[in-house]
């Protein structure tokens, strides 16, 4: 089982220069590989031959054959991993299930995420040792300190080094057997996602938009306005030292936002895994929902897609079952008490309940058959818990 730990690293001055050179080298190799890929593809179109279409092996061999002298002082594995990532990026672009994946583009120095990947890194005496090129003297190579100890035992498969706003981080992927298992239960969890909070069993709620997060977003808005003003005042030469300082503060706040929300989601999903053996979630069309003019920003900040992603891999870790409820299942329109379903003829507007005329209230669910008055979100959670394929087939019929 592959598990990844992200750790902040502290290279010395010499290794910092080496890491920065590798960031630039990865960008150079990506651009070079993409150019070769496009040339091979254009040639296959001219000759009308699918056998001549580009792949990772052809592009890698072409790059290795035309290596410059200075490239032999860089990691050979960085080149190979970059070409593999480019090949995977093209596969994702043509994958119909990943319709939002962008077409591979050339990397610019002005807007590039500094990163590189190698599969020859090692952990020696609690320090990270990245592979040394043959052309470099051993005395000029130093192990890199880690800010925390390694949590997993096993073989280190991949090491991805990335530069963020507050330092340099290494994502270490281990092939490990370390896997904590929770006891099996017969309980089913239903998770109903809403803007800024998630509802699940017994009326429980998890707030994914705390007050601290609101303060971070206020700062983000403030820094964005400062940058916009600087661009308007001096559009031809706005990238001053003050502009870069404000941009760094903006990136730091975005980093704090992602870390805070990720911590909330990780704790919530682990708690769900520990208590329930089966988890039911809705199959939402998140991309279409985000396109809303009024709710797009709040939906984007509510992390619906990220929740499903975390639940998917944690269910594999802890041997739990994840059920993705059919997108057409009307969880908010069915009464969890008697099973009555509101249709276009009965749903919304003025209705009769126990002889009295009422209006449909968004937060409450009024059943027009049994007279139950339920909380809308709790009712949806109970319907998700009761969901199965047989239920959906009966509704469709």
TrEMBL record:
It comes from Apilactobacillus apisilvae. This is Transposase. In the C-terminal section; belongs to the transposase 35 family. Keywords: DNA recombination, DNA-binding, Transposition. Residues 176-290 form the Probable transposase IS891/IS1136/IS1341 domain. Residues 304-383 form the Cas12f1-like TNB domain. It comes from the Bacteria. The keyword DNA-binding applies. The keyword DNA-binding applies. InterPro entries: Cas12f1-like_TNB, Transposase.
């Amino acid at each position: 089982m592959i598990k990844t730990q992200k750790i902040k690293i502290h290279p010395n001055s010499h290794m910092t220069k080496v890491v920065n050179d590798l960031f630039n080298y990865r960008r150079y190799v990506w651009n070079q590989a993409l150019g070769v890929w496009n040339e091979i593809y254009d040639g296959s179109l001219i000759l009308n031959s699918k056998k001549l279409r580009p792949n990772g092996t052809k592009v890698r061999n072409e790059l290795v054959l035309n290596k410059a002298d200075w490239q032999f002082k860089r990691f050979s594995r960085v080149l190979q991993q970059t070409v593999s990532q480019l090949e995977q990026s093209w596969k994702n672009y043509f994958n119909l299930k990943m319709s939002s994946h962008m077409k591979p583009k050339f990397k610019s120095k002005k807007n590039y995420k500094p990163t590189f990947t190698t599969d020859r890194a090692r952990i020696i005496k609690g320090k990270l040792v990245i592979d040394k090129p043959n052309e470099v003297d051993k005395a000029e190579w130093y192990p890199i300190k880690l800010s925390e100890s390694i949590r997993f035992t096993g073989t280190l498969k991949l090491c991805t080094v990335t530069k963020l706003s507050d330092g340099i981080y290494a994502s270490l992927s281990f092939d490990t057997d370390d896997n904590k298992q929770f006891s099996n239960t017969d309980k089913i969890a239903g998770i109903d996602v809403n803007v800024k909070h998630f509802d699940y069993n017994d009326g429980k709620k998890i707030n994914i938009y705390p007050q601290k997060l609101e303060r971070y977003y206020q700062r983000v808005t403030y820094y964005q306005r400062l940058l916009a003003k600087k661009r308007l005042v001096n559009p031809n030469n706005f990238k001053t030292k003050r502009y870069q300082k404000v941009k760094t503060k903006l990136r730091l706040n975005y980093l704090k936002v992602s870390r805070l929300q990720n911590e909330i989601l990780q704790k919530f999903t682990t708690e769900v895994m520990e208590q329930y053996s089966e988890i039911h979630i809705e199959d939402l069309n998140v991309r279409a929902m985000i396109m809303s003019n009024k709710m797009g920003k709040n939906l984007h900040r509510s992390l619906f897609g990220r929740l499903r992603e975390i639940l998917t891999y944690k269910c594999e870790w802890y041997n739990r079952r994840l059920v993705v409820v059919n997108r057409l299942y009307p969880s908010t329109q069915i009464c969890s008490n008697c099973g009555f379903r509101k249709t276009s003829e009965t749903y919304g507007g003025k209705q009769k309940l126990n002889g009295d005329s009422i209006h449909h209230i968004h937060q409450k669910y009024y059943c027009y058959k049994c007279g139950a008055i339920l909380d809308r979100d709790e009712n949806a959670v109970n319907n998700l818990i009761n969901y199965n394929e047989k239920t959906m087939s009966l509704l469709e019929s």
